[in-house]
Amino acid sequence: MKTGDRPHFPEDRKWGLSPVFPFFFAFLAGAATVLAYSPFDLLPVGVLAFALLVHLWVGAGSPRAAFLLGFWFGLGLFGAGVSWVYVSLHQFGGMPAPLAVVATLGFCAVLALYPALAGWLQARVAASDFVRATLVIPAAWIFTEWLRGWFLTGFPWLALGYASAGWPYAGFAPVLGVYGVSLAIAALSGCAWCFVRGPGRGAALAALLLVSAAGEALRHVAWTTPSGTVGASLLQGNIPQQMKFSPELYARTLDTYARLAGESRAPLVILPETAIPRLLDQVEPDFLRRLEDIARRNRGDLLLGAPVRTAPRVYFNAVVSLGTSPRQIYRKVHLVPFGEFAPPGFGWVMRTLSIPLADFSRGEASQRPLAVAGARVAANVCYEDAYGEDIARQLPEADLLVNVSNVAWFGDSLAPAQHLQVARLRALETGRAYLTATNTGITAAIDRDGRVIAQLPQFTEGRLDVTAPRYSGATPYVRYGDLGALGACALLLAIALVFTPRAPSG
User: Fold this and answer.
1) Which residues are catalytic?
2) How far is Cα 168 from Cα 209, in angstroms, rounded to an integer?
3) For the chain, which end, N or C, has fewer CB atoms within 10 Å of the first or last residue's CB respectively?
């Protein structure tokens, strides 16, 4: 490695550290950032970890060194934060352990390229240490987070903003979305670094207090209006993933959900994703009539997660309504690569995995809310709720958000808690209550402020009965999507350029 490609810090010489130590510290900082997310919810740890990355980037000797530092930070972040991919591939997908390790590391390495790109981009802007830490780095980071959220179908998991649930900075979510919250947290980290290191200490402290106060003030703004309630029962069948598609367990699965639904007296009953592990046209008509009779007895409707087909080889991961309202269907739009479809040229991966019904088609993006049980429900399936603009597409018409999931694919890992945290941000962004029914957990009800009203323990069979509030109106995020966060990034860069010293002419 060339000298200019290494970060240069006085501490290296003072303490006799090896030149590789900054990359090691970057990796540790990335891994530590995972503590900011659920189930740990230690946002201050994430702020400090990101502040260490700011320190490393400010001291980087070249754009290439900043790129490598960002890569190692990302490898630590995703290596620790999405290690559950290995569980899905090996334990439930049947991929041999060595190949699953390689595939998981490769996936994390690809994701680490986005923080690496952020490091390279910020290093290309000539700026003072204060401006770099508080303006340039946050803008570059959020731009690459947004890019990661849509490029090649996207993987927006572990955006910094998700760690804000329950903290003052979540107040920015209804205005700027999760990326706007990420921007606030990244700027806080930059201010924290400036306060410790000295450049613009007073201004950094003032900015830190201002951002915190603004976030807290926005938390108390009612962006939407209550428009009624609906009684709902969320069913958690706790069907083991390794046995879910076993023919021997099929009858027990039907009995479990019929019994749980029959015990409910709620107008809206919600079953998880692929609650019935068989194509809907292959399910016994008597069972479907039984569910429909339960919904009609309750003078409402039941939402059933089930795969449906419209042609011999055209399948959809869907939510179907049964009950007093006309039958309606929502077809999943945002599919999971390598779980629900194979990207071109990667069919061999799907042949290696033992994933039933892994060749789904994509539903139309313009689907309307489901009119059920007197509510207008914007439905989404599992991983879809990681895409804020997709969820907002059915608003403001919808007055309630419903997610059906089968997070059992990831076992007893960080994924279910992280998924619930994602749902909390969707509720905040849209100003809507959010109901999520899952196979093994975490089944929960969330109010528009991101607060979890009630939830079931993981890996237990049960029924969660709630009175779900319905809301009307539109938050700024529903109206403008991610444009607000991207505009804020552009504004920060413009301010940074104003304060960038120019070389004398001539």
Assistant:
1) 273, 332, 382
2) 11
3) C
CB atoms within 10 A of CB 120: 24
Q: Which two tokens stand for residue 34?
A: 């995972």
Return the structure tokens found at 47.
């702020």
The whole domain housing 239 covers 225-470
* Residues 278-296, mean pLDDT to the nearest whole number: 95
- 361 and 314, same domain (yes or no): yes
Q: Are 499 and 489 in contact (CB under 8 A)?
A: no
Q: Which of 487, 502, 488, 505 is nearest to 128 (CA)?
A: 502
136 in Cβ contact with 170 (< 8 Å): no
| Residue 190 CB contacts under 8 Å (≥ 6 apart), including other chains | 51, 54, 133, 134, 135, 137, 138, 204
User: In this predicted model, what pLDDT tens digit does every residue of 394-437 receive, in sequence order?
Assistant: 999 999 999 999 988 888 899 999 999 999 999 999 999 999 99
122 and 181 together in one domain? yes
Q: What pLDDT was estimated at residue 506?
A: 37
**What does the buried/exposed string (b/e) look like for 397-420 if buried means 16 or more CB atoms within 10 Å of the residue's CB?**
ebbbbbbbbbbbbbbebbbbbbbb
**Residue whose C-alpha is closest to residue 141's, from 150, 153, 152, 132:** 132
Letter for the amino acid at 122?
A: Q
273: left (phi over 0), alpha (psi -120 to 50) or beta: beta
Q: What is the per-residue pLDDT for 167? A: 94
Least confident piece of the model among 173-177, 298-302, 404-408: 404-408
Spatial CA neighbour of 22 closest among 7, 1, 2: 7
Q: Which amino acid type is present at position 233?
A: S
**Does 116 share its domain with 31?**
yes
How many Cβ atoms are within 10 Å of 112's Cβ, its own excluded?
22
Are 12 and 111 part of one and the same domain? yes
Give the whole-angstrom CA distance, residue 491 versus residue 489.
5
Q: What angle do CA 335, 138, 70 make, to 5 degrees?
A: 70
Which of 22, 21, 76, 3 has its CA nearest to residue 46? 76
